[in-house]
Amino acid sequence: MEASSSEAPARCVEQIDRDRLARTLCELIELPSVNPFGGVPQDADQGEGRVAAYLHDRLVRLGWTSEIDEYAPGRFNTLARLPGTSGGRSLMLAGHMDTVETTGYPEALTGVVRDGKVYGRGACDMKAALACYLEVAEILAERSLRPAGDLLIAGVGDEEYRQEGAKALGASGPPADAVIIGEPTELTACLATKGLAAFELRVTGEATHSSVPQHGTNAILAAARLLGRLEEHQRTLDRRRHPLLGPPTMNVGVIEGGIKPNIVPSECRVQFSRRLLPGENPSDVRADVVADLEPGAWSLGEAWWTVAPYELPEGHWLAAALLKAAELSEAPDPSPRGFPASSDAAYFGSPVALFGPGSLAQAHSLDEWVSISDMVTATAVYLRTASLISG
């Protein structure tokens, strides 16, 4: 893929193998990589080790240099490099290897091809993109082609929790001039991504016998009133709009309290998350929430889980190349968008854009799937972007 040859990208795109893409994705699905959410992997289904080894072995056989880094006990990154031919800009295709749990999903670890789709845990979030990256490597090897700049493929760990894999990879400095993350963006170029801050609200009451509730204070009912205030708080957030991401949002995900139905509960615990826009930080978000809650016997802790938001600088050359590649590949919507979920984007130390097959509507579901046609389009976009930016 010499930078001076405008025909090379088109020739490469014609070599995309649908069957190989589907087969690769099935093999990745059948290598379990469930995120242990802060713990050391306890069984063979947890951690990214087997996926890291798979990526490493495939890429080494194709002539790439590759290293596996155990950045924490039982947690892994893989970083592979194909040297460029003439010192052009380097591009890293990055994706997380971990998935959410498989509980309640009997066929989670069986990759199934049906009706033009691949099913299984991680199918769209985001092992499909990893399969696309490997297809890029296969095509370049078959045609003995290289871009002008270095091309890198990174499989990272822990995206589903604290982004420790991306943080470890970016700690020694930017690994490439630009990064594309193949999150499931529905084949749209996402130039900004929301962050996350999770908080715990503790409400204190006074226990007593349920037959005389007037002698106690029901912590669950007090928490319910506070949740009503959080709902009002969301309406104020609706007025804060980012041009690509829209408004920030909140979600109450956990509520626990009480012991038995015949005891007035003395405590209730609520966990909620707030999606962050670029420029927002967890401390200011917490202060805004506290200001909107009525006084009472409650406490709101500092954010215990955070992911930074990210936005690619306006007019960046990576955006121009990616949008042009999407247009040439006939992606359904080549206009820039925002990614409503959190991602690794803020931690690589390089300019980042998101583009990948699949939809968040299928991610984390109990019937996860991705379209093979979407994978073909994504692979074409990655090939063309590598050519466009490296010249």
From TrEMBL:
InterPro entries in the cross-refs: ArgE/DapE (IPR010182), ArgE/DapE_CS (IPR001261), Bact_exopeptidase_dim_dom (IPR036264), Peptidase_M20 (IPR002933), Peptidase_M20_dimer (IPR011650), Peptidase_M20A (IPR050072)
Matching CDD domains: M20_ArgE_DapE-like
Domain of life: Bacteria
Signal peptide: none
EC class: hydrolase
EC id: 3.5.1.18
Family label: Belongs to the peptidase M20A family.
Name of protein: Probable succinyl-diaminopimelate desuccinylase
Source organism: Actinomadura viridis
Lineage: Bacteria, Bacillati, Actinomycetota, Actinomycetes, Streptosporangiales
